[in-house]
Amino acid sequence: MSDTETPAADRRRWITLVVVGLAQLMVVLDATVVNIALPSAQADLDFSDGQRQWVITAYSLAFASLLLLGGRLSDLIGRKRTFVIGLIGFAIASALGGAAGSFELLVAARALQGVFGALLAPTALAVLTTTFTVPKERAQAFGVFGAIAGAGGAVGLLLGGVLTESLDWRWNLYINVFIAAVALVGALVLIPRAEQAGPRPKLDVPGTVLVSGALFSLVYGFSNAETGGWESPLTWGMLAGSVVLVAAFGAWQARAEHPLLPLSIVLDRNRGAAYISVLIAGAGMFGVFLFVTYYLQLTLGYSPIQTGLAFLPMIGMLVLAAQLGTNVFVPRFGPKLMVPVGMALGTAGMVGLTFLDASSSFAPDVLLPLMLVGLGMGTIMPASMQTATLGVDRQFAGVASAMVNTSQQVGGSIGTALLNTLAATAAADYLVAHGPATEAVATQAAITSYSTAYWWGAGFFAVGAVLSALLFRRRGDGLSLTTTPPSPAEAKRAPDPLPVG
Question: In terms of pLDDT, which residue wins out, 483 or 158?
Answer without folding.
Answer: 158
